[in-house]
Protein backbone atom coordinates (compact mmCIF):
# COMPACT_ATOMS: atom_id res chain seq x y z
CA UNK A 1 0.00 0.00 0.00
CA UNK A 2 1.44 3.34 -1.04
CA UNK A 3 0.50 6.70 0.35
CA UNK A 4 0.41 9.62 -2.04
CA UNK A 5 1.08 13.01 -0.54
CA UNK A 6 0.19 16.21 -2.27
CA UNK A 7 2.27 19.29 -1.68
CA UNK A 8 0.17 22.18 -0.41
CA UNK A 9 -0.61 24.65 -3.12
CA UNK A 10 0.47 28.21 -2.44
CA UNK A 11 -1.16 31.06 -4.23
CA UNK A 12 1.09 32.36 -6.93
CA UNK A 13 1.89 36.02 -7.06
CA UNK A 14 0.65 37.45 -10.33
CA UNK A 15 3.32 38.78 -12.59
CA UNK A 16 3.37 42.37 -13.64
CA UNK A 17 1.66 43.22 -16.88
CA UNK A 18 3.69 43.35 -20.03
CA UNK A 19 4.88 46.87 -20.89
CA UNK A 20 2.66 48.44 -23.51
CA UNK A 21 1.18 51.83 -24.30
CA UNK A 22 -2.31 53.22 -23.94
CA UNK A 23 -2.58 53.31 -27.74
CA UNK A 24 -1.61 50.38 -29.96
CA UNK A 25 1.17 52.05 -31.94
CA UNK A 26 4.65 50.45 -32.08
CA UNK A 27 7.04 52.02 -29.60
CA UNK A 28 9.59 53.18 -32.16
CA UNK A 29 6.93 54.82 -34.31
CA UNK A 30 5.26 56.39 -31.27
CA UNK A 31 8.52 57.86 -29.96
CA UNK A 32 9.32 59.23 -33.41
CA UNK A 33 5.84 60.74 -33.66
CA UNK A 34 6.15 62.39 -30.25
CA UNK A 35 9.65 63.79 -30.81
CA UNK A 36 9.09 64.85 -34.42
CA UNK A 37 5.65 66.20 -33.53
CA UNK A 38 7.20 68.40 -30.85
CA UNK A 39 9.63 69.85 -33.41
CA UNK A 40 6.84 70.42 -35.95
CA UNK A 41 4.72 72.04 -33.23
CA UNK A 42 7.48 74.60 -32.73
CA UNK A 43 7.64 75.20 -36.49
CA UNK A 44 3.85 75.62 -36.73
CA UNK A 45 3.90 78.53 -34.28
CA UNK A 46 5.76 80.57 -36.90
CA UNK A 47 2.77 80.27 -39.26
CA UNK A 48 -0.39 82.38 -39.26
CA UNK A 49 -3.30 80.71 -37.46
CA UNK A 50 -6.06 83.12 -38.45
CA UNK A 51 -6.57 85.77 -41.09
CA UNK A 52 -7.76 88.64 -38.88
CA UNK A 53 -6.31 90.44 -35.89
CA UNK A 54 -9.76 90.55 -34.28
CA UNK A 55 -8.66 87.61 -32.15
CA UNK A 56 -6.43 88.81 -29.27
CA UNK A 57 -2.71 88.34 -29.68
CA UNK A 58 -2.56 88.94 -33.45
CA UNK A 59 -1.97 85.38 -34.72
CA UNK A 60 -1.85 86.57 -38.35
CA UNK A 61 1.90 87.14 -38.63
CA UNK A 62 4.25 84.69 -40.33
CA UNK A 63 7.64 84.18 -38.71
CA UNK A 64 6.79 85.86 -35.39
CA UNK A 65 4.79 83.92 -32.75
CA UNK A 66 2.48 85.99 -30.59
CA UNK A 67 0.02 85.49 -27.75
CA UNK A 68 -1.01 81.86 -27.35
CA UNK A 69 1.44 80.79 -30.04
CA UNK A 70 4.30 81.48 -27.62
CA UNK A 71 2.80 79.07 -25.10
CA UNK A 72 2.39 76.36 -27.75
CA UNK A 73 5.99 76.97 -28.85
CA UNK A 74 7.23 76.40 -25.27
CA UNK A 75 5.26 73.17 -24.81
CA UNK A 76 6.34 71.89 -28.22
CA UNK A 77 9.97 72.61 -27.39
CA UNK A 78 9.60 70.75 -24.06
CA UNK A 79 8.13 67.73 -25.85
CA UNK A 80 10.94 67.70 -28.40
CA UNK A 81 13.67 68.05 -25.75
CA UNK A 82 12.26 65.27 -23.60
CA UNK A 83 11.87 63.11 -26.70
CA UNK A 84 15.48 63.65 -27.75
CA UNK A 85 16.61 62.97 -24.18
CA UNK A 86 14.75 59.63 -24.26
CA UNK A 87 16.88 58.67 -27.28
CA UNK A 88 19.98 59.25 -25.14
CA UNK A 89 21.21 62.25 -27.13
CA UNK A 90 24.46 63.42 -25.59
CA UNK A 91 24.06 66.66 -23.66
CA UNK A 92 20.32 66.20 -23.05
CA UNK A 93 20.23 63.18 -20.76
CA UNK A 94 20.40 65.45 -17.70
CA UNK A 95 16.88 66.64 -18.59
CA UNK A 96 15.31 63.32 -17.59
CA UNK A 97 16.85 61.91 -14.41
CA UNK A 98 13.39 60.49 -13.67
CA UNK A 99 10.84 59.17 -16.15
CA UNK A 100 11.43 60.47 -19.68
CA UNK A 101 8.34 58.78 -21.13
CA UNK A 102 5.96 60.26 -18.53
CA UNK A 103 7.48 63.68 -19.13
CA UNK A 104 6.96 63.30 -22.89
CA UNK A 105 3.30 62.37 -22.38
CA UNK A 106 2.54 65.34 -20.15
CA UNK A 107 4.45 67.80 -22.34
CA UNK A 108 2.61 66.52 -25.42
CA UNK A 109 -0.70 66.90 -23.58
CA UNK A 110 0.29 70.48 -22.71
CA UNK A 111 0.94 71.31 -26.37
CA UNK A 112 -2.24 69.54 -27.49
CA UNK A 113 -4.49 71.17 -24.88
CA UNK A 114 -3.10 74.69 -25.42
CA UNK A 115 -3.21 74.45 -29.22
CA UNK A 116 -6.72 73.00 -29.39
CA UNK A 117 -7.99 75.50 -26.84
CA UNK A 118 -6.66 78.24 -29.11
CA UNK A 119 -8.29 76.73 -32.21
CA UNK A 120 -11.63 76.40 -30.40
CA UNK A 121 -11.38 79.95 -29.03
CA UNK A 122 -10.69 81.32 -32.54
CA UNK A 123 -13.67 79.42 -33.93
CA UNK A 124 -16.01 80.59 -31.17
CA UNK A 125 -14.88 84.22 -31.13
CA UNK A 126 -14.73 84.71 -34.89
CA UNK A 127 -17.66 82.50 -35.90
CA UNK A 128 -16.43 79.16 -37.20
CA UNK A 129 -13.51 77.07 -38.45
CA UNK A 130 -13.50 79.04 -41.70
CA UNK A 131 -11.49 81.72 -39.90
CA UNK A 132 -8.48 79.41 -39.54
CA UNK A 133 -5.44 79.87 -41.73
CA UNK A 134 -3.39 76.79 -42.81
CA UNK A 135 -1.14 77.24 -39.76
CA UNK A 136 -4.11 76.64 -37.48
CA UNK A 137 -4.94 73.35 -39.21
CA UNK A 138 -1.27 72.33 -39.16
CA UNK A 139 -0.86 72.88 -35.42
CA UNK A 140 -4.11 71.01 -34.68
CA UNK A 141 -3.06 67.94 -36.70
CA UNK A 142 0.55 67.97 -35.51
CA UNK A 143 -0.30 68.24 -31.81
CA UNK A 144 -2.89 65.47 -32.17
CA UNK A 145 -0.30 63.19 -33.79
CA UNK A 146 2.19 64.14 -31.07
CA UNK A 147 -0.09 63.20 -28.20
CA UNK A 148 -1.08 59.93 -29.90
CA UNK A 149 2.58 59.02 -30.31
CA UNK A 150 3.34 59.94 -26.69
CA UNK A 151 0.46 57.86 -25.32
CA UNK A 152 1.75 54.82 -27.23
CA UNK A 153 4.99 54.76 -25.21
CA UNK A 154 5.16 51.57 -23.09
CA UNK A 155 4.81 51.42 -19.32
CA UNK A 156 4.55 48.72 -16.68
CA UNK A 157 0.87 47.85 -16.48
CA UNK A 158 -0.27 47.15 -12.91
CA UNK A 159 -1.97 43.85 -12.13
CA UNK A 160 -5.68 44.43 -11.58
CA UNK A 161 -8.24 42.09 -10.05
CA UNK A 162 -11.15 40.95 -12.23
CA UNK A 163 -14.66 41.89 -11.19
CA UNK A 164 -16.61 39.45 -9.05
CA UNK A 165 -19.15 37.68 -11.32
CA UNK A 166 -21.63 37.70 -8.45
CA UNK A 167 -21.65 41.49 -8.34
CA UNK A 168 -24.39 43.55 -9.88
CA UNK A 169 -23.83 45.22 -13.26
CA UNK A 170 -23.30 48.58 -11.54
CA UNK A 171 -20.69 47.17 -9.14
CA UNK A 172 -18.88 45.49 -12.01
CA UNK A 173 -18.91 48.74 -13.96
CA UNK A 174 -17.44 50.63 -11.00
CA UNK A 175 -14.79 47.94 -10.46
CA UNK A 176 -13.76 47.94 -14.13
CA UNK A 177 -13.67 51.74 -14.16
CA UNK A 178 -11.36 51.76 -11.15
CA UNK A 179 -9.10 49.25 -12.90
CA UNK A 180 -8.94 51.45 -16.01
CA UNK A 181 -8.12 54.50 -13.90
CA UNK A 182 -5.37 52.54 -12.18
CA UNK A 183 -3.86 51.61 -15.53
CA UNK A 184 -4.21 55.21 -16.78
CA UNK A 185 -2.42 56.58 -13.71
CA UNK A 186 0.34 54.00 -14.15
CA UNK A 187 0.96 55.38 -17.66
CA UNK A 188 2.12 58.64 -16.05
CA UNK A 189 3.92 57.12 -13.08
CA UNK A 190 7.29 58.55 -12.17
CA UNK A 191 10.39 56.45 -11.69
CA UNK A 192 13.16 56.83 -9.13
CA UNK A 193 15.33 59.84 -9.81
CA UNK A 194 18.95 58.89 -10.49
CA UNK A 195 21.39 60.62 -8.14
CA UNK A 196 23.19 63.59 -9.64
CA UNK A 197 26.93 63.81 -9.80
CA UNK A 198 28.51 66.09 -7.22
CA UNK A 199 28.74 69.69 -8.36
CA UNK A 200 30.83 72.51 -6.92
CA UNK A 201 28.98 74.87 -4.58
CA UNK A 202 29.04 77.78 -7.04
CA UNK A 203 27.42 75.63 -9.74
CA UNK A 204 24.62 74.61 -7.38
CA UNK A 205 24.05 78.25 -6.44
CA UNK A 206 23.88 79.16 -10.14
CA UNK A 207 21.20 76.47 -10.59
CA UNK A 208 19.22 78.01 -7.71
CA UNK A 209 19.54 81.45 -9.29
CA UNK A 210 18.36 80.10 -12.65
CA UNK A 211 15.36 78.38 -11.02
CA UNK A 212 14.39 81.57 -9.18
CA UNK A 213 14.77 83.65 -12.33
CA UNK A 214 12.53 81.20 -14.18
CA UNK A 215 9.95 81.41 -11.39
CA UNK A 216 9.98 85.22 -11.49
CA UNK A 217 9.57 85.15 -15.27
CA UNK A 218 6.61 82.76 -15.10
CA UNK A 219 4.90 84.76 -12.33
CA UNK A 220 5.43 88.07 -14.11
CA UNK A 221 4.06 86.66 -17.35
CA UNK A 222 1.04 85.15 -15.63
CA UNK A 223 0.12 88.23 -13.64
CA UNK A 224 0.52 90.40 -16.73
CA UNK A 225 -1.68 88.39 -19.11
CA UNK A 226 -3.77 90.99 -20.90
CA UNK A 227 -6.80 88.97 -22.01
CA UNK A 228 -8.81 86.01 -20.79
CA UNK A 229 -7.84 83.48 -23.47
CA UNK A 230 -4.15 84.07 -22.80
CA UNK A 231 -4.57 83.48 -19.05
CA UNK A 232 -6.49 80.23 -19.58
CA UNK A 233 -3.80 79.06 -22.01
CA UNK A 234 -1.14 80.10 -19.50
CA UNK A 235 -2.78 78.01 -16.75
CA UNK A 236 -3.00 74.98 -19.08
CA UNK A 237 0.65 75.33 -20.06
CA UNK A 238 1.91 75.85 -16.51
CA UNK A 239 -0.18 72.99 -15.11
CA UNK A 240 0.87 70.34 -17.62
CA UNK A 241 4.37 71.79 -18.00
CA UNK A 242 5.11 71.69 -14.28
CA UNK A 243 3.78 68.13 -14.11
CA UNK A 244 6.06 67.14 -17.01
CA UNK A 245 9.13 68.71 -15.40
CA UNK A 246 8.25 66.98 -12.12
CA UNK A 247 7.92 63.56 -13.77
CA UNK A 248 11.22 64.15 -15.57
CA UNK A 249 12.87 64.45 -12.15
CA UNK A 250 14.10 68.02 -12.54
CA UNK A 251 12.02 69.34 -9.64
CA UNK A 252 13.47 66.65 -7.36
CA UNK A 253 16.99 67.54 -8.47
CA UNK A 254 16.46 71.27 -7.82
CA UNK A 255 14.73 70.55 -4.50
CA UNK A 256 17.73 68.50 -3.36
CA UNK A 257 20.04 71.40 -4.22
CA UNK A 258 17.88 74.00 -2.48
CA UNK A 259 17.72 71.77 0.62
CA UNK A 260 21.53 71.91 0.79
CA UNK A 261 21.55 75.71 0.48
CA UNK A 262 18.44 76.76 2.43
CA UNK A 263 19.73 80.19 3.41
CA UNK A 264 20.89 80.99 -0.11
CA UNK A 265 17.53 79.86 -1.49
CA UNK A 266 15.54 81.98 0.94
CA UNK A 267 17.62 85.09 0.30
CA UNK A 268 17.50 84.51 -3.45
CA UNK A 269 13.73 84.03 -3.39
CA UNK A 270 13.17 87.34 -1.64
CA UNK A 271 15.62 89.13 -3.92
CA UNK A 272 13.72 87.76 -6.93
CA UNK A 273 10.42 88.87 -5.38
CA UNK A 274 11.86 92.33 -4.67
CA UNK A 275 12.79 92.60 -8.35
CA UNK A 276 9.13 92.17 -9.38
CA UNK A 277 8.10 95.88 -9.12
CA UNK A 278 11.07 96.84 -11.28
CA UNK A 279 9.80 94.58 -14.07
CA UNK A 280 6.52 96.51 -14.29
CA UNK A 281 5.93 99.65 -16.35
CA UNK A 282 3.10 100.87 -14.08
CA UNK A 283 1.49 100.23 -10.70
CA UNK A 284 -1.35 98.04 -12.04
CA UNK A 285 0.11 94.63 -11.26
CA UNK A 286 2.03 95.78 -8.17
CA UNK A 287 -1.45 96.27 -6.68
CA UNK A 288 -2.19 92.58 -7.13
CA UNK A 289 1.29 91.75 -5.85
CA UNK A 290 0.89 93.59 -2.54
CA UNK A 291 -2.52 92.02 -1.87
CA UNK A 292 -1.06 88.58 -2.63
CA UNK A 293 1.71 89.22 -0.10
CA UNK A 294 -0.78 90.29 2.58
CA UNK A 295 -2.85 87.19 1.89
CA UNK A 296 0.23 84.94 1.83
CA UNK A 297 1.67 86.35 5.06
CA UNK A 298 -1.57 85.77 6.96
CA UNK A 299 -1.83 82.26 5.45
CA UNK A 300 1.69 81.51 6.68
CA UNK A 301 0.67 82.57 10.18
CA UNK A 302 -2.37 80.29 9.96
CA UNK A 303 -0.03 77.51 8.87
CA UNK A 304 1.54 77.58 12.33
CA UNK A 305 -1.87 76.95 13.89
CA UNK A 306 -3.24 74.46 11.35
CA UNK A 307 -0.19 72.97 9.66
CA UNK A 308 2.21 72.75 12.60
CA UNK A 309 -0.05 72.36 15.65
CA UNK A 310 -3.01 70.75 13.90
CA UNK A 311 -5.62 73.17 15.33
CA UNK A 312 -8.53 73.84 12.98
CA UNK A 313 -9.15 77.62 13.18
CA UNK A 314 -12.12 78.91 11.15
CA UNK A 315 -12.05 82.47 12.48
CA UNK A 316 -8.43 83.37 11.82
CA UNK A 317 -9.25 86.41 9.67
CA UNK A 318 -10.49 88.14 12.85
CA UNK A 319 -6.87 88.47 14.04
CA UNK A 320 -6.04 90.22 10.76
CA UNK A 321 -8.95 92.56 11.49
CA UNK A 322 -7.72 93.20 15.04
CA UNK A 323 -4.33 94.28 13.69
CA UNK A 324 -5.90 96.40 10.95
CA UNK A 325 -8.26 98.20 13.32
CA UNK A 326 -5.48 98.74 15.86
CA UNK A 327 -3.18 100.20 13.20
CA UNK A 328 -5.99 102.37 11.84
CA UNK A 329 -6.88 103.77 15.25
CA UNK A 330 -3.33 104.97 15.94
CA UNK A 331 -2.61 106.12 12.37
CA UNK A 332 -3.83 109.70 12.83
CA UNK A 333 -6.94 109.10 10.71
CA UNK A 334 -9.67 111.74 11.21
CA UNK A 335 -12.17 108.86 11.55
CA UNK A 336 -10.31 107.37 14.49
CA UNK A 337 -11.84 108.01 17.93
CA UNK A 338 -8.32 108.40 19.34
CA UNK A 339 -6.24 111.43 18.43
CA UNK A 340 -3.05 109.40 18.23
CA UNK A 341 -0.48 109.15 15.45
CA UNK A 342 2.21 106.61 16.21
CA UNK A 343 5.16 105.84 13.95
CA UNK A 344 4.82 102.69 11.87
CA UNK A 345 7.14 100.53 13.95
CA UNK A 346 5.13 101.34 17.07
CA UNK A 347 1.75 100.74 15.41
CA UNK A 348 3.02 97.44 13.90
CA UNK A 349 4.21 96.19 17.28
CA UNK A 350 0.98 97.38 18.92
CA UNK A 351 -1.16 95.65 16.27
CA UNK A 352 0.75 92.39 16.74
CA UNK A 353 0.55 92.68 20.55
CA UNK A 354 -3.19 93.40 20.62
CA UNK A 355 -3.85 90.50 18.23
CA UNK A 356 -1.73 88.25 20.45
CA UNK A 357 -3.72 89.30 23.51
CA UNK A 358 -6.94 88.45 21.68
CA UNK A 359 -5.41 85.11 20.69
CA UNK A 360 -4.60 84.29 24.32
CA UNK A 361 -8.01 85.47 25.56
CA UNK A 362 -9.81 83.31 22.99
CA UNK A 363 -7.42 80.38 23.21
CA UNK A 364 -7.16 80.04 26.99
CA UNK A 365 -10.75 78.88 27.57
CA UNK A 366 -11.20 77.01 24.29
CA UNK A 367 -7.98 75.16 23.48
CA UNK A 368 -8.91 72.30 25.79
CA UNK A 369 -11.41 71.41 23.07
CA UNK A 370 -10.42 69.30 20.07
CA UNK A 371 -11.40 68.82 16.46
CA UNK A 372 -14.81 69.99 15.34
CA UNK A 373 -15.62 71.60 18.69
CA UNK A 374 -12.58 73.85 18.49
CA UNK A 375 -13.44 74.73 14.88
CA UNK A 376 -16.97 75.77 15.88
CA UNK A 377 -15.66 77.98 18.71
CA UNK A 378 -13.13 79.75 16.45
CA UNK A 379 -15.82 80.22 13.79
CA UNK A 380 -17.97 81.85 16.46
CA UNK A 381 -15.11 84.14 17.49
CA UNK A 382 -14.65 85.33 13.92
CA UNK A 383 -18.32 86.21 13.61
CA UNK A 384 -18.40 87.82 17.08
CA UNK A 385 -15.49 90.08 16.10
CA UNK A 386 -17.18 91.20 12.89
CA UNK A 387 -20.51 91.87 14.60
CA UNK A 388 -18.82 93.64 17.53
CA UNK A 389 -16.94 96.13 15.32
CA UNK A 390 -20.12 96.59 13.28
CA UNK A 391 -22.11 97.57 16.37
CA UNK A 392 -19.41 99.76 17.95
CA UNK A 393 -20.81 102.81 16.16
CA UNK A 394 -22.02 104.95 19.04
CA UNK A 395 -25.63 103.82 18.59
CA UNK A 396 -25.71 100.09 19.22
CA UNK A 397 -22.59 100.26 21.36
CA UNK A 398 -19.62 102.47 22.22
CA UNK A 399 -18.30 104.78 19.50
CA UNK A 400 -15.01 103.08 18.67
CA UNK A 401 -15.03 101.68 15.12
CA UNK A 402 -17.66 103.87 13.33
CA UNK A 403 -19.75 100.77 12.65
CA UNK A 404 -20.33 99.87 9.03
CA UNK A 405 -18.52 103.01 7.83
CA UNK A 406 -15.30 101.80 9.36
CA UNK A 407 -12.19 103.90 9.81
CA UNK A 408 -11.46 105.77 6.61
CA UNK A 409 -8.90 108.27 5.29
CA UNK A 410 -6.00 106.31 6.75
CA UNK A 411 -2.87 108.25 5.76
CA UNK A 412 0.00 106.72 3.84
CA UNK A 413 3.01 105.57 5.80
CA UNK A 414 6.03 107.81 6.16
CA UNK A 415 9.09 105.95 7.44
CA UNK A 416 12.26 107.99 7.94
CA UNK A 417 11.01 110.56 5.45
CA UNK A 418 10.11 107.98 2.80
CA UNK A 419 6.48 108.66 1.80
CA UNK A 420 4.86 105.44 0.64
CA UNK A 421 2.12 107.35 -1.17
CA UNK A 422 4.49 109.08 -3.58
CA UNK A 423 6.44 107.89 -6.61
CA UNK A 424 10.16 107.36 -6.13
CA UNK A 425 13.05 106.71 -8.48
CA UNK A 426 15.41 103.89 -7.52
CA UNK A 427 18.39 103.10 -9.77
CA UNK A 428 16.62 104.73 -12.71
CA UNK A 429 13.34 102.82 -12.11
CA UNK A 430 10.18 104.61 -11.02
CA UNK A 431 8.10 102.81 -8.42
CA UNK A 432 4.69 104.08 -7.35
CA UNK A 433 2.51 103.71 -4.26
CA UNK A 434 1.62 100.01 -4.44
CA UNK A 435 5.18 99.07 -5.37
CA UNK A 436 6.36 100.86 -2.21
CA UNK A 437 3.93 98.88 -0.09
CA UNK A 438 4.90 95.71 -1.97
CA UNK A 439 8.51 96.09 -0.85
CA UNK A 440 7.44 96.85 2.74
CA UNK A 441 5.11 93.85 2.81
CA UNK A 442 7.88 91.70 1.38
CA UNK A 443 10.07 92.66 4.34
CA UNK A 444 7.29 91.68 6.75
CA UNK A 445 6.81 88.41 4.88
CA UNK A 446 10.52 87.73 5.32
CA UNK A 447 10.15 88.30 9.08
CA UNK A 448 7.20 85.90 9.22
CA UNK A 449 9.12 83.26 7.22
CA UNK A 450 12.09 83.51 9.61
CA UNK A 451 9.79 83.20 12.63
CA UNK A 452 8.05 80.19 11.07
CA UNK A 453 11.31 78.50 10.16
CA UNK A 454 12.98 79.07 13.51
CA UNK A 455 9.86 78.00 15.38
CA UNK A 456 9.52 74.82 13.34
CA UNK A 457 13.13 73.82 14.05
CA UNK A 458 12.87 74.55 17.76
CA UNK A 459 11.80 72.37 20.68
CA UNK A 460 8.38 74.01 20.72
CA UNK A 461 8.00 73.31 16.99
CA UNK A 462 8.64 69.62 17.51
CA UNK A 463 6.10 69.69 20.31
CA UNK A 464 3.54 71.19 17.89
CA UNK A 465 4.18 68.36 15.45
CA UNK A 466 3.81 65.79 18.22
CA UNK A 467 0.48 67.34 19.25
CA UNK A 468 -0.67 67.35 15.63
CA UNK A 469 0.22 63.72 15.03
CA UNK A 470 -1.21 62.27 18.25
CA UNK A 471 -2.17 64.54 21.13
CA UNK A 472 -2.83 61.67 23.53
CA UNK A 473 0.61 60.16 22.93
CA UNK A 474 2.23 63.60 23.22
CA UNK A 475 0.56 64.21 26.58
CA UNK A 476 1.68 60.77 27.75
CA UNK A 477 5.27 61.71 26.86
CA UNK A 478 5.12 64.74 29.16
CA UNK A 479 4.31 67.54 26.69
CA UNK A 480 2.12 70.25 28.18
CA UNK A 481 -0.47 70.22 25.41
CA UNK A 482 -2.46 73.25 26.57
CA UNK A 483 0.60 75.49 26.88
CA UNK A 484 2.03 74.38 23.55
CA UNK A 485 -1.26 74.95 21.71
CA UNK A 486 -1.73 78.34 23.38
CA UNK A 487 1.73 79.44 22.19
CA UNK A 488 0.84 78.40 18.62
CA UNK A 489 -2.47 80.25 18.81
CA UNK A 490 -0.88 83.41 20.21
CA UNK A 491 2.03 83.42 17.74
CA UNK A 492 -0.28 82.87 14.75
CA UNK A 493 -2.54 85.71 15.95
CA UNK A 494 0.44 88.07 16.36
CA UNK A 495 1.69 87.43 12.82
CA UNK A 496 -1.79 88.07 11.40
CA UNK A 497 -2.04 91.31 13.40
CA UNK A 498 1.33 92.44 12.05
CA UNK A 499 0.11 91.99 8.48
CA UNK A 500 -3.15 93.77 9.36
CA UNK A 501 -1.36 96.99 10.30
CA UNK A 502 0.04 97.24 6.77
CA UNK A 503 -3.27 96.25 5.17
CA UNK A 504 -4.98 99.21 6.86
CA UNK A 505 -2.64 101.69 5.16
CA UNK A 506 -2.79 99.91 1.78
CA UNK A 507 -6.61 99.90 1.59
CA UNK A 508 -7.08 103.42 3.12
CA UNK A 509 -10.24 102.12 4.84
CA UNK A 510 -10.97 99.37 7.36
CA UNK A 511 -14.56 98.06 7.46
CA UNK A 512 -16.20 95.02 9.10
CA UNK A 513 -17.16 93.52 5.72
CA UNK A 514 -13.51 92.84 4.96
CA UNK A 515 -13.28 90.19 7.69
CA UNK A 516 -15.96 87.62 6.98
CA UNK A 517 -15.74 83.85 7.16
CA UNK A 518 -16.39 83.47 3.43
CA UNK A 519 -16.46 86.10 0.72
CA UNK A 520 -15.78 86.38 -2.99
CA UNK A 521 -12.67 88.50 -2.38
CA UNK A 522 -9.85 87.16 -0.16
CA UNK A 523 -8.54 87.31 2.46
CA UNK A 524 -11.24 85.63 4.53
CA UNK A 525 -11.13 82.63 6.84
CA UNK A 526 -12.31 80.14 4.21
CA UNK A 527 -9.78 81.29 1.61
CA UNK A 528 -6.98 81.41 4.17
CA UNK A 529 -7.61 77.83 5.23
CA UNK A 530 -7.88 76.79 1.57
CA UNK A 531 -4.53 78.46 0.83
CA UNK A 532 -2.82 76.45 3.58
CA UNK A 533 -4.39 73.13 2.51
CA UNK A 534 -3.94 73.80 -1.22
CA UNK A 535 -0.30 74.85 -0.92
CA UNK A 536 0.75 72.21 1.59
CA UNK A 537 0.36 72.23 5.37
CA UNK A 538 3.48 72.48 7.47
CA UNK A 539 5.68 73.98 4.74
CA UNK A 540 6.90 77.53 4.13
CA UNK A 541 6.52 77.77 0.36
CA UNK A 542 3.18 75.90 0.27
CA UNK A 543 0.94 78.62 1.77
CA UNK A 544 2.80 81.30 -0.21
CA UNK A 545 2.08 79.50 -3.49
CA UNK A 546 -1.47 78.60 -2.42
CA UNK A 547 -2.28 82.18 -1.46
CA UNK A 548 -0.88 83.50 -4.74
CA UNK A 549 -3.01 81.08 -6.76
CA UNK A 550 -6.16 81.66 -4.70
CA UNK A 551 -5.88 85.41 -5.15
CA UNK A 552 -4.68 85.51 -8.74
CA UNK A 553 -6.98 82.91 -10.31
CA UNK A 554 -10.31 84.43 -9.15
CA UNK A 555 -9.08 87.86 -10.24
CA UNK A 556 -8.34 86.49 -13.70
CA UNK A 557 -11.53 84.40 -13.97
CA UNK A 558 -13.90 87.36 -13.77
CA UNK A 559 -14.89 86.77 -17.39
CA UNK A 560 -16.81 83.69 -16.24
CA UNK A 561 -19.30 85.94 -14.44
CA UNK A 562 -21.74 83.95 -12.32
CA UNK A 563 -19.83 80.72 -13.02
CA UNK A 564 -16.56 82.06 -11.58
CA UNK A 565 -16.88 80.51 -8.12
CA UNK A 566 -18.30 77.30 -9.62
CA UNK A 567 -15.23 76.81 -11.84
CA UNK A 568 -12.93 77.80 -9.01
CA UNK A 569 -14.59 75.39 -6.56
CA UNK A 570 -14.54 72.57 -9.09
CA UNK A 571 -10.81 73.06 -9.60
CA UNK A 572 -10.24 72.89 -5.83
CA UNK A 573 -12.31 69.71 -5.51
CA UNK A 574 -10.32 68.02 -8.29
CA UNK A 575 -7.02 69.11 -6.80
CA UNK A 576 -7.93 67.82 -3.35
CA UNK A 577 -9.11 64.56 -4.89
CA UNK A 578 -5.94 63.85 -6.85
CA UNK A 579 -3.35 65.69 -4.72
CA UNK A 580 -4.71 65.91 -1.17
CA UNK A 581 -1.29 66.62 0.33
CA UNK A 582 -1.13 69.98 -1.49
CA UNK A 583 0.97 71.43 -4.29
CA UNK A 584 4.18 71.61 -2.25
CA UNK A 585 3.68 68.91 0.38
CA UNK A 586 5.53 68.11 3.52
CA UNK A 587 7.32 64.79 2.99
CA UNK A 588 5.63 63.21 6.00
CA UNK A 589 2.14 64.17 4.80
CA UNK A 590 2.93 63.00 1.28
CA UNK A 591 3.75 59.53 2.60
CA UNK A 592 0.61 59.56 4.74
CA UNK A 593 -1.63 60.22 1.76
CA UNK A 594 0.14 57.81 -0.60
CA UNK A 595 1.17 55.00 1.71
CA UNK A 596 -1.26 52.64 -0.05
CA UNK A 597 0.98 52.76 -3.12
CA UNK A 598 3.57 50.74 -1.17
CA UNK A 599 1.13 47.97 -0.21
CA UNK A 600 2.56 44.56 -1.23
CA UNK A 601 -0.77 43.03 -2.13
CA UNK A 602 -3.99 44.10 -3.78
CA UNK A 603 -7.08 43.50 -1.69
CA UNK A 604 -10.41 42.45 -3.13
CA UNK A 605 -13.55 40.77 -1.82
CA UNK A 606 -11.71 37.45 -1.98
CA UNK A 607 -8.89 38.72 0.24
CA UNK A 608 -5.25 39.42 -0.54
TrEMBL record:
InterPro entries: ABC_transp_permease, LivM-like. It is a multi-pass membrane protein. One of its GO terms (molecular function) is branched-chain amino acid transmembrane transporter activity. Keywords: Cell membrane, Membrane, Transmembrane, Transmembrane helix. Residues 1-21 are annotated as: Disordered. It holds the Pfam family BPD_transp_2. The keyword Aminoacyl-tRNA synthetase does not apply. One of its GO terms (cellular component) is plasma membrane. It is found in: Cell membrane. This is Branched-chain amino acid ABC transporter permease. The lineage of its organism: Bacteria, Bacillati, Actinomycetota, Actinomycetes, Kitasatosporales.
Amino acid sequence: MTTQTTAPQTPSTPAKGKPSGLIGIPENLGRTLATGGGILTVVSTFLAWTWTDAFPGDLTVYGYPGGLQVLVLITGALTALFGLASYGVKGLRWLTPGSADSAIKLAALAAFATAWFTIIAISVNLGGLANLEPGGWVVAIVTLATVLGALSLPFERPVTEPADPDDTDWEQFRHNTRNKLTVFKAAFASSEVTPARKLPAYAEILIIVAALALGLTVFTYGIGTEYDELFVGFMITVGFGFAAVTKAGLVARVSAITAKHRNVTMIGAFVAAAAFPFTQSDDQYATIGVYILIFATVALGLNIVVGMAGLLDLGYVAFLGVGAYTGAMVSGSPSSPFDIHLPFWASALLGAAVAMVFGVLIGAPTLRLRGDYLAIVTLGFGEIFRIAVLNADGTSGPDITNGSNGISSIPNLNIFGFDFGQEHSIAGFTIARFANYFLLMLLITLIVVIVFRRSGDSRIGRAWIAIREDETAALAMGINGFRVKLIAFALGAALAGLAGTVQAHVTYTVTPEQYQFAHVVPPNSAFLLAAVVLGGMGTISGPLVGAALLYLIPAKLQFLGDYQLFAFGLALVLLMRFRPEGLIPNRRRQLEFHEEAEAPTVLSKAGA
